[in-house]
Structure formats: C-alpha cells, structure tokens
Amino acid sequence: MNFKSFSFPLHRWYITVRSRDPYYLSIIKANLSYYGPSRRNQKQIPITLEFTRDSHTPKGLFSSSIYNMSHLGIYRAIDYQSNRIFIHVKRKNKIPRSWAYHYCFIRPLYLLLRKFDAVFIHASLVAKKGNGILIMGEPRAGKSTLALSFIQAGYDYFCDEHPILTRQKGRVIGKSFINRIAIPAVSRKNFPEIQKSLRWESYFKKYFFAPKDGKSISFGSSAKISAVIFPEFHSKDKLVVRKLDSMKFFLRLCQDDYFIVDRRTAKERLLSLKHLHFFEQLSKSARGYTLQYGKRQIPLISKITGGRSVSAKNRTA
Question: Disulfide: which of 56, 74, 261, 293 matches 69 by Cβ 3.0-4.6 Å?
Fold first, then answer.
C-alpha cells in the first residue's frame, strides 16, 4: 500500500502527515477538521511526520531515540536537521484513538517545534481585541466549557487543547491550533445554540463540537497572553475569582502536562528549560487567576473574568 498524506499550513510551518494506515490519518483529520488542503507558502518551513505500523521492532534512527515509548509499543525519532518526524507502532492491531492523536502526532510535533522557540501548552486559548486568555487546569476542571462560554460571549477561538506559545519583545504570544471542542454531558444544556451540532463519542464519553460548524464563531491567529485562568468546577453554585501573586502564578504554570512529562531523562530535563523561560515571562507579563464555579455560573464567567471588572482583589459572585 502506498503512502497517503494530509497537509495543512500552521503559521510559519507547513505540516505534512504521511502514512499507509488510513485509520491514523482519519484520526488526525477528525481532530483538525478546520484545516483543509492548501498550498505551501514559500516562506513556510516544511515539517513531515511519517507514521508506520507493523509487528517488528524498528532499528536505525529509532534505536538511540530518547522519545520512544517502548512500553506502549510506540517508537519516535526526530531528525532536527531535515525537520522530519518518524513514528512507528509495534502492533498488529489498531492503537487507541487518543494514543494515535497525542502520542503519535501532537507530542512529537511539539518536540520538534521547540527548535523554533515555540512550545505547546495544555490549555484552551481565546482572545478579544488581541488580548489572549489561557485556560489551564487538571482534566475535568472545565477548560473546554469555559472556552466555549468565552466564544459565545464574542471571543475569538484559538485552540481547545494545545495552543502554541512563542515570544516577542518580552511578551508571550499565543498562536492558534484549531481543533474540535470536547464538552462534558453536564455542560451541554448551557449551550442551546450549538446542541444540534454536538456529536456524542462513546469512546471519550463526551460531546464534540467542530468549530467550523458554528456559524457565529470567529477564529483568531495570534494574540498576546494577558491572563491565565485556572478553573475548578464546584458543586456549589458560587463563582469565586482570586488573583494569584507572581510566585503562586509561576508554580501553577509549572503544573502544565507538557512540562511535567517532558522531564524523564537528563536530556529532556535540559530541553524543558525552554518551558520554564515561557512560564517566567508569563508570570511577569500576564495576570493569573483561580476560578471556582458551578453550573449556573457558566454564562457569567466571560463577563467577570474577561472584562474590566477583574481587579487585583478577590471577587465572589
């Protein structure tokens, strides 16, 4: 079977994913349905990911790679000179969909983009008038629900899971990587405008919303990060916003999944210093907030946390 490919532009890069496995390509396309075929701009840097799967242990470039996940049968190698990523899965059967997308696409792409002083962060990103808001937190903290609340309040949508961070003139810049939005069943009723566009996936036990299906959604490309919110869904119907001091803000940023997972070996710990530099700049140039909320407060969140009513003092609603 010949290789098939899926290509799309991503800011200064042009990404091409190649594989003989249609299952793998279908997962990438499903998560990134916003991106369609497009010609490469000559100024864009080409990046290629090549995915293979069989029952053999790969050799050659894979043998000395520090990015292998051999306990899962996933082998990854990166050629930084040619901007090529090689992923091999030692399995006869299909791998889980979440593995295919995160371990065999997002994660290795992130590892290569560090070369260009760019990192991924596990967060949602929205923006208004060039000011970006990152929404970070543990799984089931309500990041996607908050992001959709902001979007319906008129904010531009950038990403629901893995926005790209770069730096410019002492500020951290958030760049879009538009993917579909995952909504838990408990939050569905808060968004009646898009309920017909939601698709239930039993594998994830969540509803998914493809941004291109929203007629009133506007998309962003680049914005300076002015605020970071750390949400926590609470059973009590009470909205509490607290501003973090710079040290607590920095420590909360350091709980990012990409930073934590990125420190298993001495070489990876050295490379993870790039993340620390981003966190240090964010703690100085942006504002950090913790946010507790219940189901009834979802429509109020974007007005309180994104508007002028946020101050250095704690706020309870």
Answer: 74
**Shared-domain flag, residues 95 and 112:** yes
Answer yes or no: do 289 and 150 share one domain.
yes
90 DSSP β-pair partners? 54
Report CA-CA distances (Å) from 233 to 162, 184, 239, 289, 315. 21, 12, 10, 14, 16
Quick one: 85 and 234 in the same domain?
A: no
- Pairing of the two strands 206-209 and 181-183: antiparallel
Domain that holds residue 13: 4-116
Cβ-proximal residues to 306 (8 Å cutoff; 6+ apart), any chain:
128, 133, 150, 153, 155, 227
pLDDT along the chain (317 residues), means of 10: 89 94 92 84 93 84 78 90 94 86 93 92 94 88 85 90 91 94 83 84 85 75 95 77 94 89 65 85 94 74 50 43
